[in-house]
Amino acid sequence: MAAEDHQGVTDPAPLVPVLAGPTASGKSVAALRLADRFGLEIVSMDSAQVYQGMDIGTAKPSAAERARVPHHLLDLVPPSACYSAAQFVRDAEVAVRDVLARGRRPLVVGGTMLYYRAFTAGLSDLPQADAQLRAELEQEGLRRGWPALHAELAGVDAASAARIQATDRQRIQRALEVWRLTGKPLSSLQGRRSVRPGLRFLPLLLVPQDRAALHARIAQRFEAMLRGGLVEELASLRKLHQLSAELPAMRAVGYRQAWQFLEGEIDARALHEHGIQATRQLAKRQITWLRATAGEHFDAFGETLETLLEERLRP
């Protein structure tokens, strides 16, 4: 809760800027320069950068950049783990409050829109994950097939089943887990959100209008990742960890296509083409979501963007 001074005037909650934008829109470079200028600490809002060892394909900040500007929520879990939006909200709140407690200013930056919504609007009031029940559902899925479990879900939660594909193991598992834990459909609980007191948010949303320029950036970035060793990075991770194509980390754009290449399902040309196309599709989904999101919208790249954002972040 906000504190009151001796005159009974309520101090406003800290204002936390949140910079969100599609992949390859220049938000990370802009964030670094803004952090330099205003002494900010960056809190990552990226669902792939939480995974250890996934550096090239996530465009993770380099060691030099991290030494230059403090970064939070990078390299939290191995790629064999599942990291949720609920975990992100908890970790992001701890990181933001820690930065504020030290008299510094946080800047939350990323393109994972589910994380953005969960952090700024609150999480649905859902039960915590149950490891034993999840393991049981995993075994059921292997034994009976996920389409069979999807049919079971349709019998108890038709609304969720209509939104979830019959092959989407992770979402079917979660919806059935909620049903078996609470006796209530996931769809009936998702509208009730719990918001944390004591923080306000300044949404800074990047929505590039020049689609051709964004597509050129996407192609250049993915090609640089391939030259930088994306395939080799994934091959090393597969030796170090027990991974499968169904894990959330391995479904990340770029890694999914590199996995297919290593499995011999596609050739080098298809890896290049599919990776760029998948990244374009991701950016399109991100832009659609951002356009429908309340906040201040920016259409700019590079130095122009930084100039516009400087005005909003000036103390």
CATH architecture identity of the largest domain = 3-Layer(aba) Sandwich
For the record, give the distance between the C-alpha atoms at the N and C termini, rounded to a whole number: 23 Å
Q: Per DSSP, what share of the residues sits in E-state strands of 2 or more residues? A: 5-15%
Number of helices: 14
Radius of gyration using CA atoms only? 21 Å
CATH homologous superfamily designation of the largest domain: P-loop containing nucleotide triphosphate hydrolases
Descriptive overview:
53% of the residues lie in helices and 10% in strands. It is of the alpha/beta class. It folds into two domains: 15-123 and 197-313, P-loop containing nucleotide triphosphate hydrolases (Rossmann fold); 131-191, Histone, subunit A. The strands form two sheets. It has a six-stranded parallel beta sheet, sandwiched between helices. Helix 5 packs across helix 8 (169-182).
Summarize this entry quickly.
By secondary structure, the protein is an alpha/beta fold. It has helices at residues 27-38, 63-68, 85-101, 113-121, 131-144, 146-156, 158-163, 169-182, 186-189, 211-228, 230-240, 255-262, 268-291, 302-313, and strands at residues 15-20, 40-44, 71-72, 105-110, 123-124, 193-194, 200-206, 296-298. The chain has 14 helices and eight strands.
Task: Provide keyphrases for this structure.
Rossmann fold, six-stranded parallel β-sheet, 2 domains, alpha/beta, globular, Histone, subunit A, 8 strands, 315 residues, 14 helices
